Amino acid sequence: MIPAPFARMILDMKKKSTDKKIALIAGALDLPFFTRDALRRNGWDVYIVGLKNFVNPELNPDLTVRLGGAWPAIREFRRRGIHKLTFVGALGHPNFSDIRPDWWSIGMLFSIMKHQRGYDSMGVALNKALERRGFEIVAAQDAAPELAFETAGVKTKAKPTARDARDIERAVDVSHTIGAADIGASVVVDKQVIAVEAAEGTAKMLERVVDMRKNKRRASGVFAKMTKPGQDLRIDIPAIGVDTVRAVAAAHLRGIIVNAKTCFVVDKEATIRAANDAKIFIVAVE
Predict the structure, then answer these.
(1) What beta strand segments (E) does 171-274 contain?
(2) Pairwise CA distance, residues 192 & 180, whole Å
(3) Second-level CATH architecture of 148-285
(4) Cβ-contact 149, 284 below 8 angstroms
(5) Domain 4-144 architecture
(6) CA 20 to 30 Å from 103, out of 121, 208, 217, 279?
(7) pTM above 0.85, yes or no
């Protein structure tokens, strides 16, 4: 018989080991690659579930499931003792009419649809439904803080001017206003509000700004990609990357504003390098 102190020690070690197991539910684009690597550098044992028709096969997921076909993944999580889940990667705005749920997923969908009142509330309902089934939903940037800017401040060689500071203040304020109404999280300000994100998403919004400013000769104004007030940051996390920098440069804007600690920066070194090359500033705010 194992003495009680040693038994408790063994149980604590097992619990700690289990707590470092996490399933990465991976959608499209590059962020799942950086998330996988960052989680592993932070000591996580990562099991990857790719979403069919979204995940890049080069991620080499351990398991691939379709939207609405969650049961094979749930069964595997239980078999492996995985209780923590993190969601990363683009899905767009999934159309529920295109989802053919398995039996396990039907209850999930009923719960999500019952409580959904906007795109953000869909994510909150998903998290709560999974938690009721014994899973803990983890924000990837909490498990691997290096995925975001960990501190506030200017991150580039270019610095905002006093004029830029006024645009920044206005952009942050407007972003919080539209975010609170669950309209979007991104805004472009050049003295006045030029564009706000709606259902089309950030990339399409920036395309509109590029088109309307294609004849502009001198850069001015800022793009803000902010966290919505009260947003559940465990799912649908705001992100910027090299493509964002290129779009901002093409729109003849001077800078990018994001939240520290909560906004993903896809390939942080490359993103900062691209901003420096384009003479664009990036500022992280609390």
Answers:
(1) 186-190, 192-196, 222-225, 239-240, 255-259, 264-265
(2) 20
(3) 3-Layer(aba) Sandwich (3.40)
(4) yes
(5) 3-Layer(aba) Sandwich (3.40)
(6) 121
(7) no
